[in-house]
Amino acid sequence: MKKKRPKFLLNEAFRKHGDRTFLPHLSVDCVIFGFHEGHLKVLLLKWKDGPWCLPGGFIKHKESIDDAATRILKERTGLDAIFLKQFHAFGDPLREKGKRHQEGWISKRFVTIAYYALVDYSKVFPQPDSFSSECTWCDVHAVPNLIYDHKQIMKVALEALQLSLNDHPVGYNLMPLKFTMPELQRLYETILGQSLDRRNFQKRMLALDILVKLNERKTGGAHKAPFLYRFDKKKYDRAVKRGLGAGF
Amino acid sequence: MKKKRPKFLLNEAFRKHGDRTFLPHLSVDCVIFGFHEGHLKVLLLKWKDGPWCLPGGFIKHKESIDDAATRILKERTGLDAIFLKQFHAFGDPLREKGKRHQEGWISKRFVTIAYYALVDYSKVFPQPDSFSSECTWCDVHAVPNLIYDHKQIMKVALEALQLSLNDHPVGYNLMPLKFTMPELQRLYETILGQSLDRRNFQKRMLALDILVKLNERKTGGAHKAPFLYRFDKKKYDRAVKRGLGAGF
C-alpha cells in the first residue's frame, strides 16, 4: 500500500503557511510502547541531523483530534490500525525550549495533546518518514535525550499505562493465543517495572473473570508444567469498554 | 477582594481580535462537582438570554493551560484556590453545533481542554460574572440542556472522578474533621451513584492506611454509636500525590 506523506512538512511554504492546512498552536504526540517477551520499549524518531523525538504532527482544520493522532502515527512511522488512547494535554508556554524555527506559524507556541498505545513490537514494522533518519524501538530505561518536553510526556504516558492496569485488561494483542499465568505475570511486571507476588497475581487475575483455564499444560518436559489459559474475548472486550469494576 | 473581569469578553473587539490576547482554536472548560451531606451537584452558568453551560474561557498567549483553568474558574464563578484536574481534551470538529458567532476568531472551531474538581458546595459561594444571569449548583441527575457538547464533557468528568476513587483518596475537604465510617461510605456511594457493601467498604478503607480510628464514638444517644475517624493528613497527602497503590 502506498503511504501518503506530507511532502511539504518542513519546507518554506509549510513553515510560513502551514496554518492554512493545520490548526495553529496545537499539535499531537504519540507515545507507542512496545512489548515482546518481557521487554518494554518506546518508539522514537530521529530528525535528519536533529534530535530524537516522539512521533508527532498537527491537526487539520476539519479533522478530529483522535483522527489526527491516527493519521500522524501512520504518516510518521508506518504503523496502522493502532488503538490510541488520549491521556494528557501539555500546555506549559515554555515547553518547547530551544525551538529552532524563528518565523512563521511553526515558530509559535504549541499545546500538544498526547496519546499512547501498547503494541507487540515484533508484529509491527516501523519505518522513518522522509524527514527522519531513524524510526526505532528504544528500551524505556535507556531513552536518549529527547526534544522539548518529550521525555516528560513519555513519563506521564508510562504512569497512565501503569494506572490503566487497575481498571482495564491488558494483553490480548501482546500474548500468544494460549499462555501460562507466569507469562501473563511477566507482562504486568514489565509494564509496572516491579515484581509481583505469584499467588496474589493469580488470584487477582482469576477474579477479573476474563480468563479461560484450558485443560492443557504447557509442554516442554518440566515436571510440573503450568496450565494454559486464554482470554475470553467477549468478556475481555466488555472490560476494555466498561472497565474491570475491580475498584468499587 | 476585587475580582478582575475581562470586560471585553463578548464585545465587538473581542469577537474580532480576541486572538491578540488568547490562543485561537483552544478553550478550557471546568466541571465543578459539589458534594454536601449526601448530595452531588455540578456548577453551571447561564448566559444572559442564552443557554446553560460549564464555566469556560480561553488561554492567554503566555499562560499555561493549568493557570488558564484556575483563572477562568475564578473570573467566571468567583471560586478561588480550587484544585483542578485536567482529564480530557474534546476535539470533534463538529462539537460546537449551533454556534451563534458568525465572524471573527470566536466563530472558528475550538478544541477544549477540560478540568474537573470536587468541592464542598456549602463552603464556596459562586457568583455569576457580568455575562451570566445565573451561576448555580444543579443536581447531576437533573442537568438541563447544555450548550455544544458540555453534557458529554460533564459525563466524561463524572466517569473520571469515579475512576479516580480506585487510585486516589477523596474526602479531606468534604467530610467534617471527625466522621463515622457510614458517613464516609455515603460520600463514595454518592459519587458512584450506587450502594456499597458496608463490610467490604470498611475493610477497604482501613487497608488504605489513611484513616485514624479515634477512641471516641459519635454522640447522639444511639445504643451502638459508631466510632469516629479522622484522616491522617500526611498519609492522605502522600496518597493524593502517589496514588493509593491499591492496584498492583
What's the topology here?
The structure is a homodimer of 248-residue chains.
Chain A: H1 12-17, E1 22-36, E2 39-47, E3 52-53, E4 56-60, H2 65-77, E5 85-90, E6 111-120, E7 132-139, H3 150-164, E8 179-180, H4 181-192, H5 198-207, E9 211-217, E10 227-231, H6 233-242
Parallel strand pairs in A: 1-6
Antiparallel strand pairs in A: 1-2, 1-4, 2-3, 2-7, 5-6, 8-10, 9-10
Rounded to an integer in angstroms, the radius of gyration calculated over CA atoms of chain A is 20 Å
- Residue-averaged pLDDT of chain A: 91
Unreliable stretches of chain A? none
Beta-strand portion of chain A reads 25-35%
How many separate structural domains of chain A?
2
- What is the number of helical segments of chain A per DSSP (H or I, 4+ residues)? 6
Greatest interface:
A-B, 34 and 34 residues
Helix-strand pattern of chain A: HEEEEHEEEHEHHEEH
The end-to-end span of chain A amounts to 47 Å
**Assembly of the depicted chains:** homodimer
CATH fold assignment of the largest domain in chain A? Nucleoside Triphosphate Pyrophosphohydrolase
Number of strands of chain A: 10
Percent range of helical residues of chain A: 25-40%
**Tertiary shape of chain A:** elongated
CATH homologous group name of the largest domain in chain A: Nucleoside Triphosphate Pyrophosphohydrolase
CATH class of the largest domain in chain A: Alpha Beta
The computed structural class of chain A is: alpha+beta
The major pleated sheet of chain A works out as:
7 strands, mixed
